[in-house]
Design goal:
Blueprint lengths: L1 E7 L2 E7 L3 E6 L5 H17 L7 H10 L1 E5 H6 L1 H13 L2 H5 L10 E5 L11 E6 L4 E7 L5 E6 L10 H17 L6 E4 L3 H6 L1 H18 L5 H9 L4 H11 L1 H4 L5 H5 L1 H11 L1 E5 L5 E5 L13 H5 L1 H10 L5 E5 L7 H16 L3 E5 L3 H12 L5 H9 L13 E11 L8 E8 L2 E2 L3 E2 L2 H19 L5
Parallel strand pairs: 3-13, 3-14, 9-12, 12-13
Antiparallel strand pairs: 1-2, 1-5, 4-8, 6-7, 7-8, 10-11, 14-15, 16-17
């Protein structure tokens, strides 16, 4: 899967490909967050807003005959057109994603490119649509069949749903069947997550107070519509973080597939933060340090604990197989040792099928990932090193699972331009199976520091 874009904030033009682990490095203000937010925005738009259009004739046949069938191959063949339509619609949605003026994105474009051979429709699918009291119709695809069968479950005069809604629901199911194996459900931890954690209670109180006052002042005001407008001042990933943090009491009532099938990953995460999170039935959030009989509120807890709050709740309560976990600067407030451990955690998530996407300034994370790549070879001395240094087999990662890009100035020819120019873009980083990731943006800074320190130590002898 390849993502192409033009005029996206600081980035004039560029493209990147999603791997099992995708990394974007670069200096400040070079466009890393723009690329991250744009990808998250598209996936959110795809899942929550965009629908595949189906002919109204299918709905008419469903309501008249009680059943209709759609050929899945028609949608597979039409997949490139469907995706282009989604990307064109999403490009108009970019100002909302970034909570910015439309004029800043008037010439922007976002394109998702897939190869038709990568489309593998779901072998089976079954869903029933209705309410808690009555199911109205079902959508089913059986194994080894190319048809989707939509069947009424009640008499047609008892269907309490509009034709437009039936079209949308069926279109969304087709979207899941055709593209479900390609697009991952995204979860993002933005760089603003630490603030959302510490002010969680205040955000809830302020929101509830505003709603109460609005309801008392004017019955004609729709408070939820106004709250949506208030939230529009924040970029979509930040809004998503705030909403997730506010809903932790409900979130904590569920268990993720990681909690059920890979509890050892959770134990390692709890070791990294030095304890566990808990939410009481009164929606009070605490951190319980390991081996201590105390409960700390978020403002009493360390900044490292707050920076990993939503990631911790995602891993324990929300994660589903095949998700895309996106983290803007995972190194926030973490000691170098924990940055290394977080890198190993990412590799373990990749090993169980979770895709990971990060932006980072951390040389420690990159170097630890290099170690995991370099150790992932069938050589006796490497196995001895891995065992000696307590590396687990599922922490090792292959070079071809990793994609690295550097946000930087580079010489290129933008589309429509007559000549090459230096502009801000994403440059693909080299990854060697033997030596790991070449991260030039870190190496130059480290080389400069080493050179200066050598001059400080040895310079006097040259006089």
């Amino acid at each position: 899967m390849k993502i192409k874009f033009q005029r996206l904030g600081a980035l004039l033009q560029g493209e990147f490909e999603l791997g099992k682990l995708t990394i974007i490095c670069g200096k400040n203000n070079t466009g890393k967050t723009y690329a991250t937010y744009a990808l998250f925005g598209f996936l959110s738009f795809w899942y929550e807003t965009f629908s595949i259009k189906i002919s109204g004739n299918y709905v008419e046949e469903l309501l008249s005959d009680g059943v209709t069938e759609l050929n899945i191959n028609e949608f597979v063949k039409n997949a490139p057109h469907i995706l282009r339509e989604a990307c064109q619609s999403y490009s108009n949605f970019l100002p909302t994603v970034f909570a910015s003026s439309a004029k800043h994105f008037s010439d922007s474009s976002f394109e998702m490119i897939i190869d038709n051979k990568d489309i593998r429709p779901a072998l089976t699918y079954k869903r029933q649509i209705g309410s808690a009291k009555v199911q109205l119709f079902s959508i089913e695809k059986k194994e080894n069949q190319d048809t989707i069968t939509v069947s009424l479950l009640v008499e047609k005069d008892k269907v309490r749903i509009s034709r437009d809604m039936i079209e949308k629901v069926v279109g969304d199911c087709i979207k899941d069947i055709v593209f479900g194996d390609i697009f991952s459900n995204p979860f993002i931890a933005s760089a603003e997550r630490t603030g959302a954690a510490i002010f969680r209670k205040e955000l809830n109180l302020a929101r509830n107070r505003l709603l109460e006052n609005l309801s008392a002042l004017d019955k004609k005001v729709n408070p939820f519509e106004l709250m949506t407008k208030v939230y529009s001042d924040y970029a979509l990933p930040v809004k998503t973080n705030v909403d997730f943090t506010r809903q932790l009491e409900d979130v904590s009532k569920k268990d993720s597939f990681i909690a059920n099938q890979h509890p050892d990953i959770l134990r390692d995460f709890h070791d990294i933060i030095g304890g566990e999170f808990t939410v009481t039935k009164d929606d009070e959030l605490y951190f319980i340090p390991k081996g201590k009989r105390i409960k700390l509120s978020m403002d009493e807890s360390s900044s490292a604990v707050r920076s990993l709050l939503d990631i911790g709740f995602y891993l324990r309560h929300v994660a589903k197989p095949g998700d895309l976990l996106m983290i803007d600067e995972p190194e926030l407030n973490l000691h170098p040792e924990n940055q290394r451990r977080v890198a190993r955690l990412f590799a373990r998530l990749v090993s169980i099928g979770t895709r990971v996407f990060i932006t980072t300034h951390s040389d420690y994370i990159i170097k630890e990932l290099n170690t995991l790549i370099m150790l992932n070879h069938d050589k006796p001395h490497l196995k001895k090193i891995a065992e000696k240094e307590n590396y687990k087999p599922d922490e090792l990662i292959s070079a071809d699972s990793v994609k690295v890009y550097i946000a930087e100035l580079a010489l290129m020819k933008p589309e429509g331009a007559k000549r090459r120019i230096r502009c801000q873009t994403l440059t693909k980083g080299d990854i060697d199976p033997e030596y790991g990731i070449e991260a030039k943006s870190f190496d130059s800074a480290i080389d400069d520091m080493n050179r200066i320190q050598e001059e400080i130590i040895w310079g006097e002898s040259d006089d």
